Amino acid sequence: MIKNEKQYKISKSWLRRFEEARQKLDELPKKKEQLWLKQAQKGSLEAQIGQLREEITEYEALKAGKIIVPSLDVLSTVPELLIKKRIANNWTLEQLAERLGMHHQQIQRYESTDYATATFETLKKVAVALNQETVPANRKISNRAARKTKRA
């Protein structure tokens, strides 16, 4: 992802270089014994060109307002969602703490302050742990979810 104008200019420069290299490669005389090498080089250049074009197009569209970026209001709901997910998973503070390699009192402090002191990295780790849900024996799985589980 291109994050600023400097990276944008550098990406445009690399795109030109890769396109020139692809053109020079196409202009080389064709030799049967090196055809595989030329194809591999061209494939590599095509992949780089494709990736750069995608990133440049996205950056230009963002700058031009052609891409609608969702509101960031959702961030304020993250602490509550983490707590609700723990409860929905039927996990105690101790169980979550164990999965994270933390002491349960740390999780208790996080939850009591709505994760105000947690780093973004910690929030991501908690979310990942909570998404590794196990269904308790006393909770029913919907027919649709059961079919998905059987196919997997």
Could you list some keywords that capture this structure?
152 residues, mainly alpha, 434 Repressor (Amino-terminal Domain), 7 helices, 66% helix, elongated, disordered C terminus
Summarize the structure in words:
- The chain has 152 residues and is mainly α.
- It has two domains: 5-63; 73-151, Orthogonal Bundle (434 Repressor (Amino-terminal Domain)).
- It has helices at residues 5-27, 35-63, 78-88, 93-100, 104-112, 120-131, 143-151.
- Helix 1 packs antiparallel against helix 2, helix 3 packs parallel to helix 6 and helix 4 packs across helix 5.
- Mean pLDDT is 88; it is low at 135-152.
- Record field, number of beta strands: 0
Highest-level CATH class of the largest domain:
Mainly Alpha
Q: What are the low-pLDDT stretches, counting only 5+ consecutive residues below 50? A: 135-152
Secondary-structure element series: HHHHHHH
- Percent helix, as a range, is 55-70%
Q: How many helical elements? A: 7
Distance from N terminus to C terminus (CA atoms, Å) equals 33 Å
Query: How much β-strand is present in the residues?
Result: under 5%
Question: How would the blueprint of this fold be written?
Answer:
Blueprint: H1 5-27, H2 35-63, H3 78-88, H4 93-100, H5 104-112, H6 120-131, H7 143-151
How is this structure best summarized?
The chain is mainly alpha-helical and 152 residues long.
